[in-house]
Amino acid sequence: MLKNKKALAMSVLCAIASVGFVVSASAAEQTMHGNLDEVVVEGSADVLPGGMAKAKGSVGLLGDKEVMETPFSVTNVSQKTMDLFLGPNEPLDKALVGVPGVRASGSVLHGDFSLRGFRTNGTAMYVNGVHGVMTQFNLPMFAMEGVDVVSGPNSMLGASGVQYESNTAGGIVNARTKRAGDTDFVKYKQTFSGKGSFGEYLDVSQRLGENREWGVRLNTELLNGETAVDEANMKAKGIAVNIDHKDKNSSTNFFANYRDLDIYNGIRWFKLANSGHTPVDKNGNPTLTRPDGSKVDKDIPGVTHLPSAPDGGKNYSAAGTWKAGYGWFATLNHEQYMNDNWTLFANFGYSRQKLNQNVSPNMSSYWITDDAGNYDFIQTNSATPQRSYYAQLGTKNKFETGALQHEVMLSTDKAWRNRNGSDTVPGTRYIGGSNIFTGSAFQDVDARYIGYTTRPNNKTSIWGVSLLDSISFGKWDAMVGIHKHAATAKSWSKDSKSWGKEIKSDATCPTYSLSYAPDDHVMIYGNHAENFDIGASAGTSYQNSGEVLPPAKVKQNEVGVKYQNKGAMYTLAYFDIDQANNVSKDVAGYTKPFLVQDGKVNHKGLELAVNGQLADKWYGMVGIAYLDAKYKNMGKGNEYKNGVRESGQGEWSASAALEYKADDNFSVIGRATYTGTTPFYTVNYNTSTVTKDSKHLEAPAYMVYDLGVTYNTKINSTPVKLSAMCYNLLDKDYWTVARGDQVYLSTPRTFFVSAEFTL
Known about the structure:
The chain is mainly beta. The chain is built from 3 helices and 44 strands.
């Protein structure tokens, strides 16, 4: 078996070596390197053996902290892991599956994933500690050198945010931008992936000044071509710059990025319909129309079991199905060292993003209407331009009171977001039907819509203040913190063309922890953390579109133990989380459901993580998670959900990313990802409402394997890093449950090769 694997690895390596000479004019990308020791600019002391995870990372207000000194479950994903597993046609969650609480559910269209069972994406992420500048769709990961994940809700550590679609209930996810290290370099990378996706990436790092106090890091991206899915195309262009300045009195970092991303024919979500009828108004007249204006009036058989997963390479999009967005954002971080014990800090962020073309099925999903896999395509067009702002000022102070050592942090911050909607023509319309096993039957239908008019949608703002005292006394550490915030939100009425009533809310969220370290290898901890989001905004699929719901409070209790020895770090954690629940509700006389708040969801579980050196020449990230997620305290009309497992939340998941490093130049990379059986509901046709008549189905468990190689060599005197990866090695077809009530079709076997030249 070992010989066969080595033969496979060497054959792939020969192929990529031949490509490396030819692609120099046309290919490059952001993924897949091998031995990235020279790329890890943050310093080897912070990186666990093998370089896949870091021993130190950002923990919100606490700043950079050692994992073994942090009383929370923390995973710091390195640039090497992102380079190995985050391909140009792969979503962000591919680089995060080594985090035990993360479950993959995203695509290149939507960077969704779940953390401890709570949906999140770019809208809830931080960049360099600044919240609200990223988006769900257009994530510039080519400019990032790692991601820090602090599991669990914590408003105090993460400060205030105005995310519009997901939340931070599952944890804080912070992306670190690429910065100039001690070594200057110019790197040029070419890539090929899918069926014809070529990329070019430039990475320039330079330190300047008499004492090299200034650093400049420039990254560019150019990507274009067909993905592994038939006739699905993706193109992107972006540029990012990071400028930093360091001296004995201060540290400053500025980051700015622009990216333009277009994806054609990439829709792979499906909803499973209850039995019923196409929608009618209160007078019984059909409301769904075809492009020619005729009405759709038919019975829906309904789904009683999930059809088997079809060929993952099939395309289900009509010609012109299109997501296009562009925008830029910037962050500014500054620390002023007043003396050895007193630091002032400031963080700022600005983002301007436009999802200017969103031509897709209604609610981004096709509707499977029966057990045979027949589905309907109901098209919508929309656009969501938005701007967001963030500002934070604070101070850190160290002092002693007797035997107690204190580090006190006080900060105040404010975030704003203005989000627009669109008035589009032709709006929602019924295109036709097909079958999941035959692929799209709509290639003769041009769904494209160019041009739209924008209108206000909602405005949100949140102001907060945080106070935290981190206390050390011998082998014990304690943390006591409190976060107070006040939020306002208001929605635009399309009918009255005016702003509605301003909704105000405020909350006080405590955080406290206690940890004990008997020696340098072991740390035992417990914590209580709370989060209070500003409240979800109803999307265009709801009757109350634009309305902001009451804030959803989240409370967590967690206990855990960490152990580090002989190059490996182990973390075992148990958590129990309660969150207020948002559900869809049908109301008589309305064609769309309402988004309302009702009851709670309870998530409790166990997580085990192992990072670092596993054996001689073997390195990796291993994560195993158990999750028990159930509804409770549901009100009238939803009582049937009480005690039922939450839709989209399976019990077991696991991932093992491994590297066999034969020598300094050659490595074999492999990864296995397991997702257990996952329950979900059927929903009412075209409204996505769960009712007591909804069927409680299950998506089967699946295992996916990835395999790759990396090789460092020289062409003439130029160092070259050659890489190859095969995602979904066995070409497994499977369903992933996404967003609770959708199933997402797997992507097929995908090949990726790259050549990186150090000039």
